Fold:
Amino acid sequence: MGFLRFLAIAVLAVIVVRLARRLLQAGAPPRDPRLDARTPVGADLVRDPACGVHVPRDSAIPASADGEEVWFCSEKCREAYSRGERAEH
Structure:
């Protein structure tokens, strides 16, 4: 009977821990998906002139400014740059 009691307590402990994790994650603010993105090793990075963030050229938004090609991390930054503002994340 001692082993069954131990097994029941262990299963109950696992369930409580998993439930606690889910509750804690549900209350956390949503993460920015850009923070979870992985940059491939050796990727060509470009700097967003509006906010200063470095992004892979493949996922950056290109634009032309004064005959020079510039790259942005988002439409928000591209619009801020075109208005002459500094973008904040």
User: Anything to note?
Assistant: DSSP finds three helices and four strands in the chain. Residues 2-28+43-82 form one domain. The chain has a mean pLDDT of 86. The helical segments are 2-27, 33-36, 75-82.
